[in-house]
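Hi V.,

You were right to ask for the full record rather than a summary. Here it is.
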Amino acid sequence: MLKRVHLGALPSNRLRAAFGVVGTALALFGVACISPPAESPFDVVEFELVAAPSTVPLVDGRQMEVWAYDGQVPGPTIRVRRGQTLRVRFTNRLPQPTTVHWHGVRVPNAMDGVPGVTQPQVEPGESFTYEFAPPDAGTFWFHPHVRSSEQVERGLFGVLIVEDPEPPPFSREEVWVLDDLLLARDGRIAPEFNTRHDLAHDGRWGNVVMVNGERAPTLEVKPGERIRLRLLNVANGRVFVPDFGELEPRVIAVDGLYAKEPVAWGGFEIAPGNRVDLDLVVPPDAGGRRFAVQDRFTRRPFPIAEIAVSGDRVETPAFPAPARAAEPAWGAFGESAPARAELRLNARLGGPLGIEWTINDEVMDHAHDHAKTGRYALPRNEASRLRFVNDSYRLHPMHLHGMFFRVLSRNGVAVDEPFSRDTVLVHPKETVEVGVVPADPGLWMAHCHVLEHAEAGMMTLVEVR
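Predicted structure:
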């Protein structure tokens, strides 16, 4: 069972020193500096988290055998305020080793949950305590980094929300965890993982799409409500492009950081690992109406959810969007930053199933000595450019641990996205250049977030020093 305990204050001088380095780097990178108040106390928030086999109602309420955090899928939503220290005592009751990776959170390197790089894997029956103070307010999540393609598909994922010290006064907040499941004919999760078919394509795509473990749920809202809708894609390989029809949400944050300014919703590709926060105002005259939210990434649209408007009209909260309009422009970044690495993405014959996915013709395996794998060095607190070159005909959502980046160009054409990311979808035969100013030292993973591709070798290490 999830427990939350406040344990008092931590020394503010130590936290101010740590945040000072991060704030300097983010200022260089064009993100508003994040520093704690000079004299504010920072309490510790504790949680107990257990991964174990379980049986839970999913899809249409049917009981399914899964692996779950605290006996639920999605796992528990952990909430802390920016500036608080989160301490999670994790216990593994699975039949396999596992870890917990805090996706998108700029944690100390030792807390990143990557076996053989930042920590030993947590064996069955063992425990590990994760402790860190999230420096950024936003939508994040957690999942295993051992046999991820199997463990995430079985149900091991949860949401971490880092709240602003003074959250914007939305009418309310909703979280949609987007996922799919591949079910066998008997209604169970198909037990074949990392198949040759999945490796040869864009990973494992399910035959049932879910939001928060339900198929096409209905969100009941009132006319005039202003809702913060947090979208998170935890699927192994599926990409979502939600279409809200006549509703007009605005993007206020991507991958956990506020955007430079609110952005009109217009077909954003939510790849595995991506998060998008929306500012959605329900039209005050929409009482009695129902709005279908459909996916438009595939050729045949299908329902994701429905928004049903009913009840008495409420006053729409009036406040400026929390997107940070004062963020500097990024135009000069790509011209001035040196190119540090080119990561070429492709496949080759080899491995247990005959297909390996590579970065610069190298494969990486958690089970092997990481010191012998390729590393790409990035200077701490300095601007660098990285280039992802997709030599294959498959999709690759490329994810960097421990840092955010800005997309600078696609196929040599400059782009001006007014937001940062930690995951970018690289299309077949596409080249994507990104700019990054890493603030936290250590060895950090860079990998494809199609989990089958990563398990088949499409991982490498970036060293910030």
